């Protein structure tokens, strides 16, 4: 197979580490526990439960940008705090603000991410970012990690009303790049949203296996990498 000519990349779990999430929730829960005199572990557990329960209700709308992006995390903290007996209406907003501040200082790129983006740019390989989430949240991550200007095209689901794995979001990136799907890699860590979505759009899916998958796929994708530098070979840059 000939080398690919264009590259699309996922953000969370691909370029940006997402192993900080539990630590942020614990840190925020500890601060809130001191503030309101509740059990920190119970609050952190309640947050996880509330997240998954509320996500099933509004997650799709949140990713599409159809609801206030602040409403989901605020409601999650409201439910979690209520579980441990804190029902003050202002407490949830306070918790969300604390969460946002704490997370902003915890964001980290994977070790090779900046290097790979820089080399692709230097070698003239057009790139697009395709990320699921609200506009403000995802673009804040790009600014915080210094890669806001690293892409030729940035597609955020909340700005377009469509999210991975819908082929339509991949089509937006391809159109922005002026790319041919069959000559474009899409690199991501999610087997459904990234690998399945890219395959459905006619692209060349690349699964980046960071060793964090909850369970291994029954059938491994055709192209698997463990480090983004392995893309060089797929692009003929070795």
Automatic annotation (TrEMBL):
InterPro entries in the cross-refs: HAD-like_hydrolase, HAD-like_sf, HAD-SF_hydro_IA, HAD_sf
Ion transport found in the keyword field: no
Keyword Hydrolase: yes
Superkingdom per UniProt: Bacteria
Gene Ontology MF term list: hydrolase activity
Cofactors that this protein relies on: Mg(2+)
Keyword terms, alphabetized: Hydrolase, Magnesium
Protein's UniProt name: HAD family hydrolase
Native species: Cellulomonas fengjieae
